[in-house]
């Protein structure tokens, strides 16, 4: 058992893969979002770091407008993503999150392609701040965007306040590494 991520909810007992499976044929809105962040905590605490990050990816892909009450308690999981990457114990499989987000952003498809693509690049930037020694995939030809471009695209395609949230997490990471 890993210590809980402070940026994710305390999960209800008994959550498993069926938690998300029930949304297979349903709208993936606020309920789906909460299920993703809640189940990510379960996966994280079980030591399944890479699967927890994938669950947070799914949360970032939820169909949200920005005014959902769940976002007041559990904002878009940029802080959770950064915290889990920073606190993954040695020997726990997390893969290379930098490569993951580079591939994810470079190969994104619908629905809401641009929103999800720029969220992936935003997470990629967080990984670079948290784990600067991780290398990208030189065999995956993609133009790596600047922080300014990520910010501009999140402002265009993201939710109200999303850029501020991402910037605050990124600033905290940069400040803590100094």
User: Roughly how many Å apart are the termini?
Assistant: 30 Å
- What is the mean pLDDT? 93
Residue fraction in strands: under 5%
DSSP summary: helix tally: 9
Radius of gyration: 15 Å
Query: Describe the biggest sheet?
Result: none
Order of helix and strand elements from N to C terminus: HHHHHHHHH
Structural class: mainly alpha
Estimate the helix proportion, in percent: 55-70%
Count the beta strands. Answer: 0
Low-confidence stretches: none
Q: What is the approximate shape?
A: globular
> How many domains make up the 3D coordinates?
1
A few lines on this structure:
The chain is mainly alpha-helical and 178 residues long. It is 57% helix and 0% strand. Helix 2 runs antiparallel to helix 3, helix 3 packs antiparallel against helix 5 and helix 6 packs antiparallel against helix 7.
What this model shows, in words?
The protein has helices at residues 18-21, 30-45, 49-60, 70-73, 78-87, 97-106, 113-130, 147-157, 162-177. It has 178 residues and is mainly α. It has one domain. The chain starts with 17 loop residues before the first helix and ends with a helix.
Short key terms for the protein model shown above:
single chain, 178 residues, mainly alpha, 9 helices, globular
């Amino acid at each position: 058992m890993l210590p809980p991520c402070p940026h994710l909810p305390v999960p209800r007992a008994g959550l498993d893969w069926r938690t998300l499976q029930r949304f297979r044929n349903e709208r993936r809105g606020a309920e789906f979002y909460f299920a993703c962040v809640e189940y990510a905590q379960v996966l994280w605490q079980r030591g399944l770091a890479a699967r927890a990050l994938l669950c947070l990816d799914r949360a970032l892909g939820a169909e949200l407008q920005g005014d959902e009450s769940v976002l007041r308690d559990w904002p878009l999981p940029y802080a959770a993503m950064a915290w889990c990457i920073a606190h993954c114990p040695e020997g726990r499989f997390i893969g290379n999150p930098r490569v993951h987000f580079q591939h994810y952003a470079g190969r994104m498809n619908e629905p809401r392609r641009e929103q999800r693509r720029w969220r992936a690049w935003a997470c990629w930037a967080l990984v670079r701040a948290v784990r600067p020694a991780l290398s990208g995939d030189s065999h995956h030809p993609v133009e790596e965007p600047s922080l300014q471009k990520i910010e501009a695209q999140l402002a265009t395609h993201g939710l109200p306040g999303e850029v501020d949230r991402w910037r605050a997490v990124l600033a905290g990471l940069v400040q803590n590494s100094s």
